[in-house]
Amino acid sequence: MAFRRRTAVLSVVALLSGLVAATGAGAGPVPGATAGPVPGATAAGTADPSLAALVQPQAALPGPLPADPPAALEGAVTAMAAHVGIDLHPAAAIRAAHLNPGLTGRLALLLGLLQDCQKITDQLLAHLPAPPGEMLLRNIDPGPIPEAPALRACAARVEAGGLETENFLRSVPAEGSRLDLWPVLRVDPIGTDDTVGPDYMLSVDAGGNDTYLNNAGGNLIDVRAEPKGLAKGCSNPAYDLAAGRCVISEALLIDVAGNDTYGQMEAPVGGVDGLCTDDLLVRRVVTGGAGAWGVGVLIDGGGDDTYIGKSLSLGAGHFGGTGVLLDQGGNDHYTAIRLSEGFGTLGGTGVLHDAGGNDTYSYYLPGPKYPGVPDHSLGAGCALDTGGVCDGVSRWILGCGFLCGVGILVDDAGDDTYESAPPAKHEPGASGIIRDTGSMGFGDGGGFGIFIDGAGHDTYRGMPGRANGATVTPNDKSQGFFHDSGGGAAAEAADPMADNPVPDNSVADGGFVTAWFTHYIPEKIRVARGSTPQFFNPDLYGGPFGGKRHTITEVRNLHFDPPGPPRFDVSVDFGKVAPLTGVEKLKPGAYDFICRVHPFMKGKLIVE
């Protein structure tokens, strides 16, 4: 997989989530709510490397291939099926499929990884004060979720193993026949055009133009449907988990190639979303690389793909879980109602990473059944929320975090179009708390959102301040980070010491300036006299030379200032944050600065 070196560095801003939350910058926790664990931080308060590993994965197996691949796969399938109450005897089917031994061994290892994640999920569920469905229905505060970092790390290992398996399938001739061991394992080693209806924990497809009507890498599995039937899954976890309509498992989907479709628009079910709307929608939640209380990963190797979700979908993490959607190329289309496309909540982590292509990101909003009725009323439109009321507001998509969650969207390159609903005042569920909604690098309630577009001429609609070449840092409105690198020769050649063509960025007292690769973000900053901004270094590589350390060091303009030492000179190692000491003493005016380690990095500080 060819990731651009420059955007590999951009992805490391995932580390911002822990440090910004730890310093209390941006929006605070929801009043009256208990904050979960600091997103992206370990118990010691240091940045969690699993966040960077999720966004910039490296293909790797968890260990050596088993000596007897068919026996190892048989044992793994049997164990995963038993965990959800199904008695499977897969030995004969495994032998009859005649899969490549290398693929068979990899499937056993991947199922072993999912078993490891399941153990963490089981521990999380055992610590909850009530069953998950009851907690959602009664709006019970879960308190801290200490298993969230372990689930992030496990998801990173699952993603790495999935990438290695994808690379293996690309490198060997097609061999064997279809293997279907519902609900644990589905393998298409040839790459035919398939329509997949039942849910699977592990699904591996070598290619073809496929349509996934199932969980598609989401971890809420429907074990009621017959192996050849269409899974219905969780339409509303608050009710469906308690009723046994779906179970909490772990999931990984690998599709190597083809123009694929994930999700399907259908008429709403009466008594469920049919109470709110008559318009078509995706009926189920937690699909398309989504993890709730667990891990869900979707890896698509390329092609012009379509991803359709409802909520908590398309790279979404909920209740301490982690969801990842990785698309490695093609002109793709993503759409969902809300809480999707790189979204995390309640300590969960959601990542959507698209490696290239001219992509379209959007939302859809089913209309009201009874026009004119207020939100949260019968027939108000959209879909039911977990509290069982019609929630007619689209929000928190495209790199958003809420309630101590982390949501990340990274698009490496291409001329992309992003559209979200405009910000609004909204009461989540029956909380009695009115919040400002947002999208595209937006965070609230102790959550943190990150949006990075690495290159291309992009178009933005719906969210103020988002534009080609713009940067929006954490502020009193949002605990989030937005950055579009811009496109074209003019943008690349702009001199940061000259008047910056990018809009000026004000940094509040205690707000953040960052540095990575070859430039500062923002390159021209405005601060109020007497304030002290913070300097954060998320740069994993440190540019083409010089290492990971960065400085912000004043360069005196001898036309206006007498010679002397820099009035501010701060050095910060990778993953660290420090105050820009000395800035608070400066008089109003403009001050140039450079990085002493990378002198080609330049910026301008304006004190007002």
Can you walk me through this structure?
This protein has 608 residues and is an alpha/beta fold. The chain folds into two domains: 53-410, no CATH class; 495-607, Immunoglobulin-like, CATH 2.60.40. It is 18% helix and 25% strand. The strands form nine sheets. The chain has an eleven-stranded mixed beta sheet with strand order 1-2-4-8-11-15-19-24-29-32-31. It has an eight-stranded parallel beta sheet with strand order 3-5-9-12-16-20-25-30, with no helix packed on it. The protein is globular and about 85 Å long. The chain starts with a helix and ends with a strand. Mean pLDDT is 84; it is low at 1-47 and 488-505.
Poorly predicted runs are: 1-47, 488-505
Oligomer: single chain
Give the domain tally.
2
**Can you give the helix content as a percent range?**
10-25%
Q: Which value, in Å, is the CA radius of gyration? A: 24 Å
The total of beta strands comes to 42
Helix tally equals 10
Task: Name the overall outline.
Answer: globular
What percentage of the residues does DSSP assign to strands (E)?
15-25%
> How are the strands of the biggest sheet laid out side by side?
1-2-4-8-11-15-19-24-29-32-31
Query: What is the residue-averaged pLDDT?
Result: 84
**Termini distance?**
46 Å
Secondary structure layout:
Elements: H1 5-10, H2 16-23, H3 49-55, H4 69-83, H5 91-97, H6 101-127, H7 132-138, H8 148-171, E1 179-181, E2 185-188, E3 195-196, E4 202-205, E5 211-212, E6 220-221, H9 237-240, E7 247-248, E8 251-255, E9 261-262, E10 290-292, E11 295-300, E12 306-308, E13 311-313, E14 316-318, E15 322-327, E16 333-336, E17 338-340, E18 343-345, E19 349-354, E20 360-363, E21 383-384, E22 390-391, E23 400-402, E24 406-411, E25 417-419, E26 425-426, E27 435-436, E28 442-444, E29 448-453, E30 459-461, E31 471-472, E32 480-484, H10 489-493, E33 505-506, E34 512-516, E35 519-521, E36 524-527, E37 534-536, E38 550-555, E39 569-572, E40 577-579, E41 589-594, E42 602-607
Parallel strand pairs: 2-4, 3-5, 4-8, 5-9, 8-11, 9-12, 10-14, 11-15, 12-16, 13-17, 14-18, 15-19, 16-20, 18-23, 19-24, 20-25, 23-28, 24-29, 25-30, 29-32, 33-36, 34-37, 36-42
Antiparallel strand pairs: 1-2, 6-7, 21-22, 26-27, 31-32, 34-35, 37-40, 38-39, 38-41, 41-42
Helix pairs in contact: 3-8, 4-6, 6-8
